Amino acid sequence: MTKGDSLEDLSGVGPKTITLLKRIGLEQPIDLINNVPRAYDDYSRVLKIRQIRPGTVTIRAKFTSINQRYSKKGLHITEALANDETGSVKVMWFNQRFRASSLKKDKEYYVSGEFAKNYKYLV
Fold it and tell me: Do the Cβ atoms of 28 and 5 come closer than 8 Å?
């Protein structure tokens, strides 16, 4: 690989990927090395439910109940009650109809998201 090589010379990179890479300004293999992501989400700090505070959190928990409903505005909401040995918390997904069928009760999951005060309770 030399400085003058093109993205087409890379093994395993097809035409669709090359089009996407060029769209964000990557023309040569060296551009891939020098490209720094604009954001990074760190999921390595896993908290117990008792420890969570408002902000972005990651927990490891089992779901004991999983329900689906619609809001007054027609938004599809999946709600689940996540539990660990220190407590429980309600987890909500919006407009993800498939979510309820993909979750299994009493199976352990890692969940990350925004924990915030909403009206009279924390969600």
Answer: yes
User: For residues 80 and 49, what is the distance between their CA atoms, to the nearest angstrom?
Assistant: 14
Threshold 0.85, pTM exceeds: no
Q: Are 5 and 33 in contact (CB under 8 A)?
A: no
User: Which of these, 64, 85, 67, 65, lies nearest to 76 by C-alpha position?
Assistant: 67
Reading the block at residue 9, the tokens are 């010379």
Q: Beta partners for 81?
A: 65, 90
Contact assessment for residue 59 and residue 48, using Cβ atoms and an 8 Å cutoff: yes
Residue 67 in this model has a pLDDT that exceeds 80: yes
> Among 54, 112, 56, 51, which residue's Cα sits nearest to residue 84?
51
- In angstroms, rounded to a whole number, what is the distance separating the alpha carbons of residues 51 and 61? 13
Ramachandran assignment for 87, one of left (phi > 0), alpha (psi -120 to 50 degrees), beta (any other): left
Q: Quote the pLDDT of residue 2.
A: 67
- What DSSP line would sit under 47-112, residue for residue? E-GGG--SEEEEEEEEEEEEEEEE-TT--EEEEEEEEETTEEEEEEEES-TTHHHH--TT-EEEEE
